[in-house]
Structures are given as C-alpha cells and as structure tokens.
Specification:
Blueprint (H helix, E strand, L loop, with lengths): L21 H10 L6 H9 L4 H5 L3 H13 L7 H41 L12 H9 L9 H17 L29 H25 L9 H9 L7 H6 L1 H9 L1 H14 L3 H7 L1 H10 L4 H7 L10 H13 L3
Helix pairs in contact: 1-2, 4-5, 5-13, 6-7, 8-9, 11-12, 14-16
C-alpha cells in the first residue's frame, strides 16, 4: 500500500458573512474602519480570538498572530490589513483605558462630594441653643440596637467623625469649616460658604507659615523643611489658623497649581462652571486636564513645572496628577 504524502496545511478563507453571534459582531465592529476585510475577520474568529483577547495582547503577540495567519493558514494579507489589525487593537485599547480612567475619576468625584455633604451642617438637626450641635449628635446616635445594617454603621461612623471635628482635646467646641462654592475671580462668596479666591489665599498663607517654620528651624540649628509638611500645618494650628488643615489643602493642590501656571485658563474654567451651576467637586476634577496638557508641553515633567514656579515649588505633586500624566503619556506612546 502506498502511503499518501502529507499535504501542507491549507486554510480556505470562508465568506465573511458566515460568522454569527455576539463575538463576531464585536470583531467586525473593531476592524470596520481599519481596512481589514470581513473574510480576514472571520478567520480570526475561527482561530478562537475574541475582542477581549485581542485588546489584552501585547503588540508582539499581535504580530505573532498576523505571522501565523500568513505562514500557517496561508492567507494573503495585504500590507494595509496587517497595519490595520494592529492599529485597530491599539485604538480600542486606548479607548478602554480612557473609559476606565473616566469611571475612576467619576467615582472619586462622587466620593468627594459625599464626603463634603457629610461635613456640611444640617439645619434640620441643629437646635438653636448653646448645645445644639451636641444634641443633634445625640439624636443621630439613637439607632436600633438589633440592627447591624450598613446604614446604621455608617451613621455611627459619621457621628464619631463629627464629634472628633467639633470637640477638641480641651473639651471646647471648634467652629465647623464651611464647604467651598465655585465663584468667579473677584466675586465675593455668598452666605456661609467660602469662594475660590478664599481657597487660593489659604495656599498663600501656607507659604508664609512655611517661612516661619524655616526661620524657627534655623534659629534652633535644625533642618529646614523645603515643602509644606505636617510640621507646617501644626504650626498654623498653634498660631490660631486651625482652618488650615492637611486634608483640605491636599485636595485642591492641583487647582491652585492651575491658578499659578495658567491663570487665564483657571479663570475661564471658574466662569464656565459658575455659569453652569456646577459644584466644587466637578470643578476640582476639571482642573486636572489643563495641567496634563501643560505637562505634555513640558515633555511630561510635571515636577519641573512645580519646581520652576515660586509658589508651587513648596508643594508636592499630587499622586493622582502624576498618574494621569503617566496614563496620557502611555496612550500617546511618548
């Protein structure tokens, strides 16, 4: 018996409309604007690739897939198709990264807004007598002892948080800090809430407190801090400026940075968000993007931008701003 010679692996390219189902539609949607033929997409689907698989692959792995389609499946891929496959995967990957980052920023904005609402006094609970705030806390503490729900636990945590803020170590009640509102440059704040000019002035005061700390350190022969640290916040508190605290100042460093680096853009952003009736949380998030643009113009050296500015060099670059610059740099392949 004569044994048949093994034949080379041949793959007949099927019709591009043969594939059906969700994954095939997703693949076709991925490559439709990149010059990849439907029949090529069909082959990739029959090889077992999905949208999720492709966008999570490295560029070298995508190159290997293209090479396998040409050498093992004997597909006559056009040069434009080869580059189109890689371009489509990169574009989708960037889009997914942007969507995830936007979701993260939205969640952060929502978390900050909830935090500020918890810190805002509730007129319905506070009584008018001298012990009003403490009595209101007593009312909030009346919970069902048999209930272990998350809502009850959260109420207890808020109660402890308010007590720690309103009653100092000496037993005296501290004035509650009011939240900020979006105001235009030079616009006075209305009611009990402070405007953005007041916020930026707090950073100017921090610079003066840092100079005082440096002067004290020199007199004692100790090392002088070059940036605003916990030591500066403690000094501000001891001198009666308890309204300057670390959490508040760290939350808005990037907003102050935009004000120092590009005051025109900062002022326009304030006017725009004031006209739209947006809250401080939304304005705070929007301040990141112009700074990322400035970092890109400075070869992504955000530290250099801070260090070159006399008012900013005393502040640490916020971690979130640094991360956003890194993400944008990776997206642009720079």
């Amino acid at each position: 018996m004569v044994q048949a010679e093994p034949t080379a692996l041949l793959y007949k390219r099927p019709d591009g409309t043969a594939l059906a189902g969700r994954e095939s539609r997703r693949l076709k949607e991925l490559f439709k604007d990149f010059g990849v033929q439907p029949s090529t997409v069909t082959v990739m689907g029959q090889m077992g690739f999905t949208l999720s698989t492709l966008i999570n692959m490295k560029d070298e792995e995508v190159d290997f897939v293209i090479k396998s389609m040409i050498e093992e499946y004997h597909l006559d891929l056009l040069m434009g198709e080869q580059f189109g496959i890689k371009a489509a995967v990169r574009a989708k990957r960037r889009l997914v990264v942007e969507e995830l980052e936007q979701q993260r920023m939205d969640m952060a904005a929502l978390s900050n807004e909830k935090k500020r609402r918890l810190e805002e006094p509730s007129d319905g609970l506070l009584l008018k007598d001298g012990n009003g705030s403490l009595e209101a806390l007593g009312l909030l503490g009346l919970t069902d002892p048999d209930s272990d729900s998350e809502g009850k636990k959260a109420a207890k945590r808020r109660q402890r948080k308010r007590r720690s803020k309103e009653v100092g170590d000496d037993g005296e009640e501290r004035p509650r800090e009011h939240p900020f509102i979006v105001t235009e440059p030079g616009e006075p704040a209305k009611g009990k809430k402070n405007g953005l000019d007041y916020l930026f002035d707090l950073y100017e005061q921090c610079g003066k407190f840092l100079e005082e700390v440096q002067h004290i350190a020199k007199e004692k022969g100790e090392k002088c801090p070059s940036k605003v640290t916990n030591e500066v916040f403690r000094h501000a508190k001891l001198t009666g400026a308890g309204y300057i605290n670390k959490p508040k100042m760290r939350d808005y460093v990037h907003c102050y940075a935009l004000h120092c680096l590009d005051v025109e853009t900062s002022n326009n952003l304030r006017k725009e968000f004031k006209e739209r009736g947006e809250n401080v949380g939304a304005w705070c998030q929007a301040c990141y993007f112009p700074l990322v643009t400035l970092a890109r113009q400075n070869e992504w050296d955000i530290d250099d931008l801070f260090n070159q500015n006399d008012k900013l060099r005393i502040w640490y670059v916020p971690t979130k701003l640094r991360q956003l610059c890194h993400i944008e740099r990776m997206k642009h392949g720079e």
